[in-house]
Amino acid sequence: MTLSAPSAEQLAATETPFQQVWRTFRKDRLAMAGLYVLALLIVLALLGKLLTEWWVLLDPTIVRLPDKLRPPFSVPSPALLPAQVPPWGIYPFGTDELGRNVFARMLQGSFVSLSVGFVAVSISLSIGVTLGGLAGFYGQRKWGPFSIDALIMRFTDVVLCFPTFFLILTVVALLPPSIYNIMAVIGATSWMGTARFVRAEFLSLRERDFVTAAHALGLPEWRIIFRHMLPNALSPVLVSASIDVAYAILTESALSFLGFGVRPPFATWGNILADGRTFIFDAPWLFAIPGTAILVVVLAFNLVGEGLRDAMNPKLRKRAS
Amino acid sequence: MSGGLEVLLEVRDLRVEFQTDAGPVLAVRGVDLEVLAGETVALVGESGCGKSVTALSVMRLLTGRIAAGEIRFCGRDLATLPEVELRRIRGGQIGMIFQEPMTSLNPVFRVGQQIEEVLALHQNLKPAAARAQALELLQRVGIPSPATRIDQYPHELSGGMKQRVMIAIAIACRPKLLIADEPTTALDVTIQAQIMALLQSLQQELGMAVLLITHDLGVVAHAAQRVNVMYAGKIVEHGSVRDIFKRPAHPYTQALLGALPHPLAPARRLEAIPGRVPAASMLPAGCAFCARCRHAFAPCSTEQPPLLDVAPSHVAACWLHDKKRASSAG
Question: How far apart are CA B217 and CA B220, in angstroms?
């Protein structure tokens, strides 16, 4: 009469969706490489924050005029004061035109890049998920002669039509230069993709049986939206978020490069690159090091994003396992 | 049948309207329905006749609009009840199971969590108590090794087991009424019988009423006490299960039964009903079944028949049962 009970071993194979994604993700070598790079970067960024601001071992602001434009791995000149000598008696990444330690500046910049990336994307995610969710869930309701969906999505289209980078430039030029303004501006101009994804997901989820079932159980609407629909809409959002982080880091670098970003002497990868531009033949490491760093980080985020996309795609997952 | 029992659900003249590009269309055109406490009432009809729409409107789960009518449940009109109070009834006093167990559970949560959620919501149970009760419910609905199953995800369960979980969720708060919208349609025949047996035993144990929506007359004959036959958005015949199967009064019911194979009768060609269901947007002025009916006569194409008495507590919407007209037509 009843079904034959599967053995305990078969039943014990229960995996959370997260574990499933991780199992597939781990098989993707490129994505794992990206993940290692990101882990390393996070460690470096935290270390950089620690060593350049709190427990100043590597001071990125010390000017050493005798040691201008030293190449990587060179030793400091004996003319330096004891306080100016870099730790370990070496410039791992050389020095810039003021004799500042590029290694220390890169470390300081890594924290800026990473925090801009994550904070800007958090801002853009919260705007995008909220607007997309509203448009998808309450889309049919009317507000005046228009449906809420039409209003929100046409607004999204309007924002998409702005040439984003020039908008950011204008806003940043008008606002006092601060890293928080940059995070906010990048976040406020990059949520449109997320909003469209989330709306599309919500439109399809809203008609799914388990959402009707959740209504039939008397769950309040906010609970259905946040607990039942949002987790199901999350995978495309996560994928696009990881790629958006790369975009935000790139935008911040470009702004700093153009001199609209974080104000010097505070170092970011963008303004190290900008400083190096004038010495491109005399001191190629000044642009090569931050340039490579930006490239590697952006690449790493993109690889992780693609790996996530494959791992979260149930069709690909079945084929892989 | 209805002697002295409390009327749990009473639907009066329910009309449900959908907005289409061609203008509003009535999918349910004045349905009357009554469910007494503890009994099983079936609502049968072919696909698209409006039976699921009727069921969903009782819980107000529709995108369509309830254009008119009353849905009285325990003396309150669900059609006009504010959303907040309706939520307490949904899941608490009326449980519902759906046609597709495959998609009715949220794929990202463990089945236990989904049962516990209802218990926490309607009965304010603490997590530990809710889990204990969820385990008990899984056991009650006949899920093998419930202690393991409770922590599994819906994709790890078979269709029959998922439907059992859906039933566990629906009965978690001991509802007075269970709406079962084609609970066995998506399942294998063997599992269907198990699920129906489970529903019946739960019904006796909990004393709840069941509104069974189905197109499977076999299921109806086994499970229901009273039957409503629905055609093109209207109830065309209503009676006890014995009346409907032994003495069907409406030509549509007769045709439906004629289309069933009989296990004892010699093999014969099954009768099909000629023609097709008219689209809800272009119904004839008279009886909607008129064009397919072999008994159709003069008034059928011009006037809609009301529900006419055939026998005590057996009514059919057919002019054949109007003594005056039927005799005048000869």
Answer: 5
Using a CB-CB distance cutoff of 8 angstroms, which residues of chain A are in contact with residue B65? Answer: none
Asked if the C-beta of B87 comes within 8 angstroms of chain A's C-beta atoms, the answer is yes
Q: Using CB atoms and an 8 Å cut-off, which of residues 164-203 of chain B contact chain A?
A: 166, 169, 194
Contact flag B148-A140 (C-beta cutoff 8 Å): no
Per the structure block, which two tokens stand in for A297? Answer: 């980080």
Gap between the Cα atoms of B204 and B38, Å rounded: 8
Domain boundaries, chain A: 37-67+89-320
Rounded to whole angstroms, the Cα distance separating B292 from B232 reads 12
What CATH architecture applies to the domain B7-93+173-277?
Answer: 3-Layer(aba) Sandwich (3.40)
Strand, helix or coil for residue B178: strand
Q: Which amino acid is at B240?
A: S
Q: Which long-range contacts (CB under 8 A, 24 or more apart) does A87-91 make?
A: A87/A57, A87/A58, A91/A67
Per-residue pLDDT tens digits for B249-305: 888 888 888 888 777 777 777 777 877 777 777 787 888 888 888 888 877 888 888
Q: Say how far apart CA A67 and CA A56 lie, in whole Å.
A: 20
Residue of B nearest to A14 (CA): B152
Dihedral of CA atoms A36, A39, A43, A49 in degrees, nearest 10, equals 130
Q: How confident is the model at residue A320 (pLDDT cuts 50, 70, 90)?
A: very low
Beta bridge partners of A263: none
Query: Has this prediction a pTM greater than 0.80?
Result: no
**Residue B152 contacts A, CB cutoff 8 Å:** yes
Angle at A181 between CA A176 and CA A186, to 5 degrees: 135
Encode pLDDT of B129-160 as tens digits: 999 999 999 999 988 888 888 988 888 888 88
User: Is the Cβ–Cβ distance between B11 and B70 less than 8 Å?
Assistant: yes
Contact A102, A95 (CB under 8 A): yes
Looking at residue B238, the DSSP 8-state letter turns out to be E
CB B240 within 8 A of CB B225: yes
Number of Cβ within 10 Å of residue B48's Cβ equals: 15
* 3 state SS of B78: coil
Give the CATH fold of the A37-67+89-320 domain: MetI-like fold (1.10.3720)
